[in-house]
Structure formats: structure tokens, C-alpha cells
Amino acid sequence: MDEAQLPAPIAIDGPAASGKSTLGAALAKRFGYRFLDTGIMYRAFTLAALRANVAPESSGCSAFGGTLALTLRRGEWGTGIMLGDEDVTPLLRDPRVEANVSLYSALPPVREQMVQQQREFARGIRAILAGRDIGTVVLPEAPLKFYLLASEEARAQRRSTQTS
Question: The whole model's pTM is what?
């Protein structure tokens, strides 16, 4: 397929541990796209909020998010994340972050800030974004959307592999 014919951006959605990131990274590598697992952004916000002792509530997180220096660092195939000058990508699967990310990511002001950055990431490049609500909220006009499903057993196995 001619590069000009490749769709962009591509949205990959589905429940936790359904294989969104695995598929997204493989497609990005195969077709030369930039890949973003949007979950890392929520994990980075959570890490920063925990470090700053910001409670998971809307008004505090809204104000905190407005001052947060969270930036995406494009790697060869994937994307890392910076808090200020610190690459926090290796810290994002920390058990404390994992235990709290759903509290912060459920807050509307946090979601609004992250969605804005996700859209900016995808603008003007061949990008694949994987995460929840990518095809419906983040990139509703994406020309190619995938929604992955996996059995409860497969998802549980994937989760246990991720945390070991």
C-alpha cells in the first residue's frame, strides 16, 4: 500500500487487558506510525499527583493539572512521558500508581486535559492511539477504528503477566 493511502490517525479501543497496546505497537512498527498508549498519560498524572499529595478530587486535580509539565516524548515506535525534565516512563507500572490511577483518570478535568494532549499528539502525523474511549471521544473522526474484545480468562492472564 502506498504511504499516502495509509489511514491516519488509527484508534484502538477496548477494555483493560484486551491487547490494545500490543496490537497498536505492532501495527506502528510494521507501518511506520507513531504509537501512543494513552494509559501512560493517566499513570503519569497519577504519579505526579501522588508525589505532590494532591487528592483525587476534581477541583484540586483541575488546578494541579493546569500547572503540570507533562509532555510526551516520541520514541522510535512508542511514546515515553516526561514530568518536567524527568522521564517517568519506567515508573508508571509502580504498584502505588496502579492502585490509584482509576481514581484520578475518572475525574472529568483530568480526562479533559489528557484528551486535549492526545488529540494534539495525533494531529498531523501517522499515529495510532490505544486506550479507552479513543474511537468515540478522543478521535471520533478517525478513518480506521478497532475495538478489541477478549475473554475474561484471557484478560486475567494478560493482567497477571503485566504485574509479574
Answer: 0.85
